[in-house]
Amino acid sequence: MDFLPSNITAYADAHTSPESELLHRLNRNTHAQVITPRMLSGHIQGRFLAMISCMIRPRWILEIGTYTGYSALCLAEGLSPDGKLITIDHNEELEDFARSYWQQSPLNDKIEFRLGTAVDILPTLNETFDLVFIDADKRNLSVYFDLIIDKLRPGGFILADNVLWSGKVVDPIKLLDSDTLAVQAFNQKVHADPRVENVLLPVRDGIMMLRKQN
Fold this sequence. Notes:
Elements: H1 6-14, H2 21-33, H3 42-56, E1 60-64, H4 70-76, E2 84-89, H5 95-102, E3 111-115, H6 118-121, E4 129-134, H7 141-148, E5 152-161, H8 178-191, E6 196-201, E7 207-212
Parallel strand pairs: 1-2, 1-4, 2-3, 4-5
Antiparallel strand pairs: 5-7, 6-7
Helix pairs in contact: 3-4
């Protein structure tokens, strides 16, 4: 995920609004206690997610891929007063970990966790979402997009994480890797879809921002 020189990354980090104390502890303890902490959104990406959410002021947010709950807290910062965030994950082992931090936040009552497989849960959702964050397994990126595009309001936004996949998307040696191929296919699919306009942002491991056409 390290595309920029370390001194540039450190400079960007130093000139980004800090995490809250709660998010800092969640960040630190994820790295200390959980396997593959690189999956955490972290400081700069977390502030980016919060900024986008605060700009949109969504009533309904959908998150696919909860992990330890960091990004859910960031996204929930921008919810409208009557807003709700639904977050989906199949890893029951991390549910209590995530909830233990949500419960320390005034945003706790706005976050609803759904345990299970996203491809099974998404068709059961009846809400119309203003903002969707996809941060789950890469092989199903295109599947998730297809399942949620009709549940997104016109003018609503999708953010898909890891779309640069540690730079592998432009490395021809890695083309036989199934995850890389899936990320490439998703990027091409949404770029060609007339229902959305898109920009691929080189933030951390790459974020594809999509806006559903009116």
